[in-house]
């Protein structure tokens, strides 16, 4: 029997960026908030021995333990789904800070085009630009409506950048801190893209260029370019993360309590509301019911969808009939790019997660797609994140992958190669979706989430087009040998690609085509809010978190309003 | 880090004991000698075995159960990452010890992997689907490497020529060798990856001895900060630092 705990104003499931933002805003507004996190408490003092590539980047010390819970995967409905037995393609977060602890910190705002993609694509290219298998839809919120919330996140995180991208949405205020250093590697990209007529600018970074105190009084230090950033926590507190910003902000109000090793297994539905959540204390084995006026799911794309599915809240999407919205529009990220091999040695081992320069000339609808068989595009960047030796063994195509020649080449190229990468947009397709697996279970006895996903013709066309652009830039940068990424075929769960999963709990203006309304309030349960990149009806040409955070700030305002007056926010 | 054996070098030991064949040497001591790779029924010394170097102290085995297993892995990893004019290969870097330690721990028992059934082969895009742990895969794989060497060359894997080892490893890589519950290509990928991990992980894991893996790559290991040098045009040569201090 589960023990029922005294009711609180808000219970938040998961303490990454989204959970942290909701907790901070609600607690500041005087609401009593409890945060339930399945992982452990951790912070800067635990990251003093972090420069260990093997432990953190290879064996995923800070990430989800998939022995306990994973997903199943198949490329299409005809294939039997099998469990993802080890993480690879994407790395799920766990513990205080979630993925926000070991992210890179590229911090973007999606384009005005993204939020109204259906309307704007139809207007410009007619209604049949993509076939009806692609489930494009507007988000129910516009860039202008979100602008203040984007800025709110910029301020909380102290983002370092420069407002020099001629394409992006208007920024009411400049970045809180100046851009990071323009290193020689970045300058190569800058020179090349300029001479090709493009408009390079410094990538907006959550590794801060200088010490900064945010409006809540939290201090973020200056990045030391240590080269152990992505997949690592920051030993300086210089990479903006929930555990050094929104979590302490929530805690110091006195209105916020955290529980670790608390794995939520169900959202309890009662009538057209929810009454709380059930969780397991994974240390004691005891079950509890935490009652709350408002339940907020902030447990990332996968578990936000799964918790709704196992709790029977909302209608599961069925690709056969097109009915149902839960699990719909799962998207990923398309990663065109090029590798370049140089003669001169470069300081490739130095860097920071979000040290980079970007061009957006081929992102969103910034270029004409009339004669192209795809829409959208991607941000093309060079990043200098610090090559680490286990994972970085660059060899030209045709070089053996082991033995004497491999050794010689991979060592030689380690300090003589660069890559240009793209965060390519991913459009929803009727056959790509999330559901519950019928065979495999997690250690709590719940079904695993099932992912049915493959790349589409749109993805392949976008990949090919942008890869060619990146090859040209790399040539212009002076590489001796340039290799574009191989064309994409089927989605493969093996090999890290990106943790930019989106969709499954999408937002929209109508319950017909979305799970939550534009305040991320569930259409079927007014006191349930579901927050994360799962809300994206498609994935844009950028990393997601800047946009996720803006949506979370807007939702927090909605939750506070709801707590006072109740009812639907739309 | 203890790099140099304090008591005696293996070559002194060889000289003073007069040991000429592997047969006399127990698992406890041969570890450091594997570079010599002397086979009992065949006096052939393979070229991977000829590596004339000072190994660190023999660390003993946590996973491998006999010298033969250890020698097979030593030779296989050395072929994947051989000694050359740039610097040491897998054996001298301590990679076989690194693998031994890893197989004895979490890595070997897949404690952070989803290992519940039912098991099915699956498509390539679905990744690892074996019911076997890495420890079982290595144990079986080593036996199959030896069997294959015997089949093709009538000798154990550690006694054949370098080119013959390459031939067999290539057959594993191309998935031409039958194994149970796992493919040979998968086993090959595991050894290859583990070799690179052992060559380049922090030396506290038992590989990358003397930080020689890092030195070859000119990777300076654990540095507190590059803020004052990252904008320099010139390539920076920096003495490497391990996490544990020297
Ligand atoms: C290596 C890496 C690099 C990245 N780099 C970037 C980048 O440069 N730019 C960018 O925009 N994005 C980046 N991302 C993505 C970014 O980290 C995520 O978008 C963001 O952190 C997601 O925040 P979240 O709060 O939605 O989820 P998470 O951070 O995943 O937090 C969810 C939390 O919920 C907890 N939880 C899950 N299930 C349960 C349950 N049942 N009960 C209780 N708790 C539960 C988890 O333990 C976790 O702590 C990166 C991600 C990774 C992995
Ligand atoms: S690169 Fe900068 S922000 Fe990233 S971990 Fe190192 S010091 Fe911290």
Write up this protein.
The complex is a heterodimer of chains A (570) and B (246). In chain A, helix 6 (184-195) packs across helix 10. In chain A, a hairpin with a 5-residue loop joins strand 6 (212-213) and strand 7. In chain A, the strands form 4 sheets. In chain A, strands 1, 2, 8, 9, 10, 11 and 19 form a 7-stranded mixed β-sheet that branches. A 6-stranded antiparallel β-sheet of chain A has the order 5-13-14-15-12-18. Chain A has one domain: FAD/NAD(P)-binding domain (3-Layer(bba) Sandwich). Chain A is of the alpha/beta class. Chain A is 22% helix and 20% strand. Chain A contains 11 helices and 19 strands. Chain B has one domain (10-16, 40-245). In chain B, 40% of the residues lie in helices and 2% in strands. Chain B contains 10 helices and 2 strands. In chain B, a hairpin with a 2-residue loop joins strand 1 (38-39) and strand 2. The model of chain B is unreliable at 1-57 (pLDDT under 50). The site of flavin-adenine dinucleotide (FAD) has 41 residues of chain A, from helix 1, strand 9, helix 8 and helix 11.
């Amino acid at each position: 029997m589960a023990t029922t705990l005294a009711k609180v104003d808000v219970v938040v499931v998961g303490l990454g960026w989204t959970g942290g933002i909701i907790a901070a805003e609600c607690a500041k507004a005087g609401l009593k908030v409890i945060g339930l996190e399945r992982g452990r408490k951790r912070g800067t003092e635990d990251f003093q021995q972090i420069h260990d590539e093997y432990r953190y980047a290879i064996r995923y010390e800070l990430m989800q333990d998939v022995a306990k819970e994973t997903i199943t995967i198949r490329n299409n409905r005809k294939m039997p789904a099998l469990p993802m037995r080890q993480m690879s393609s994407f790395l799920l977060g766990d513990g205080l800070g979630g993925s926000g602890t070991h992210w890179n910190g590229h911090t973007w705002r999606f384009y005005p085009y993204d939020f109204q993609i259906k309307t704007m694509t139809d207007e410009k290219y007619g209604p049949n630009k993509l076939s009806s298998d692609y489930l494009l839809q507007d988000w129910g919120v516009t860039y202008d409506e979100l602008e203040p919330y984007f800025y709110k996140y910029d301020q909380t995180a102290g983002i370092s950048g420069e407002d020099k991208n001629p394409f992006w949405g208007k920024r009411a205020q400049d970045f809180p801190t100046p851009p990071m250093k323009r290193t020689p590697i970045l300058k190569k990209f800058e020179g090349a893209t300029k001479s090709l007529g493009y408009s390079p600018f410094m990538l907006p970074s959550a590794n801060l260029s200088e010490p900064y105190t945010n409006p809540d009084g939290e201090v973020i230090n200056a990045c030391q370019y240590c080269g152990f950033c992505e997949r690592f926590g920051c030993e300086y507190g210089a990479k903006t993360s929930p555990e050094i910003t929104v979590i302490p902000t929530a805690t110091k109000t006195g209105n916020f309590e955290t529980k670790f090793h608390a794995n939520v297994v169900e959202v309890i539905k009662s009538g057209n509301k929810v009454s709380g959540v059930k969780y397991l204390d994974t240390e004691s084995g005891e079950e509890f019911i935490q009652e709350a006026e408002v339940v907020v799911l902030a447990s990332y794309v996968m578990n936000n969808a799964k918790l709704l599915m196992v709790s029977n809240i909302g209608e599961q999407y069925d690709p056969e009939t097109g009915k149902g919205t839960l699990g719909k529009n799962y998207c990923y990220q398309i990663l065109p790019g090029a590798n370049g091999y140089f003669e001169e040695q470069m300081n490739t081992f130095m860097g920071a997660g979000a040290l980079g320069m970007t061009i957006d000339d081929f992102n969103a609808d910034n270029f004409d797609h009339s004669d192209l068989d795809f829409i959208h595009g991607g941000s093309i960047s060079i990043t200098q994140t610090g090559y680490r030796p286990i994972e970085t063994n660059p060899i030209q195509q045709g070089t053996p992958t082991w033995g004497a020649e491999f050794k010689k080449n991979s060592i030689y190229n380690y300090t003589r190669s660069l890559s240009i990468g793209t965060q390519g947009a991913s459009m929803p397709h009727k056959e790509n979706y999330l559901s519950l697996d019928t065979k495999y279970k997690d250690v709590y006895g719940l079904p695993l989430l099932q992912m049915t996903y493959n790349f589409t013709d749109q993805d392949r066309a976008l990949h090919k087009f942008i890869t060619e652009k990146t090859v040209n830039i790399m040539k212009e940068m002076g590489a001796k040998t340039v290799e574009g990424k191989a064309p994409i075929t089927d989605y493969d769960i093996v090999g890290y690609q990106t943790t930019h999963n989106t969709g499954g709990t999408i937002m929209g203006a109508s319950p017909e085509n979305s799970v939550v309304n534009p305040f991320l309030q569930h259409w079927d349960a007014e006191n349930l809010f579901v927050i994360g990149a799962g809300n994206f009806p498609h994935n844009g040409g950028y990393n997601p978190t800047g946009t996720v955070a803006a949506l979370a700030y807007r939702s927090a305002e909605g939750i506070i309003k709801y707590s006072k007056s109740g009812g639907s926010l739309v | 880090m203890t790099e140099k054996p304090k008591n005696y070098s293996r070559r002194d030991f060889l000289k003073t004991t007069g040991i000429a064949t592997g047969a006399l040497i127990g698992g406890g001591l041969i570890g450091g000698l594997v570079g010599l790779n002397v086979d009992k029924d065949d006096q052939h010394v393979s070229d991977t075995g000829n590596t004339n170097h000072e190994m660190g102290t023999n660390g003993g085995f946590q996973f491998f159960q006999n010298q033969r297993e250890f020698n097979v892995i030593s030779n296989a990893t050395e072929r994947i990452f051989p000694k050359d004019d740039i610097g040491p290969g897998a054996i001298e870097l301590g990679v076989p010890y690194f693998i031994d330690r890893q197989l004895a721990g979490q890595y070997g028992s897949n404690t952070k992997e989803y290992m519940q059934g039912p098991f099915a082969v699956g498509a390539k895009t679905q990744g690892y689907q074996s019911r076997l742990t890495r420890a079982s895969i290595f144990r079986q794989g080593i036996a199959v490497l030896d069997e294959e060497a015997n089949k093709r060359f009538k000798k154990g894997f550690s006694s054949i020529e370098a080119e013959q080892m390459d031939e067999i490893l290539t057959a594993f890589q191309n998935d031409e060798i039958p194994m149970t519950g796992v493919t040979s290509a998968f086993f090959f990928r595991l050894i290859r990856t583990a070799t690179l991990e052992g060559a380049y992980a922090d030396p506290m894991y038992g590989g990358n001895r003397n930080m020689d893996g890092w030195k070859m790559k000119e990777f300076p290991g654990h540095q507190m900060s590059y803020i004052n040098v990252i904008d320099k045009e010139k390539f920076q040569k920096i003495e490497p630092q391990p996490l544990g201090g020297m």
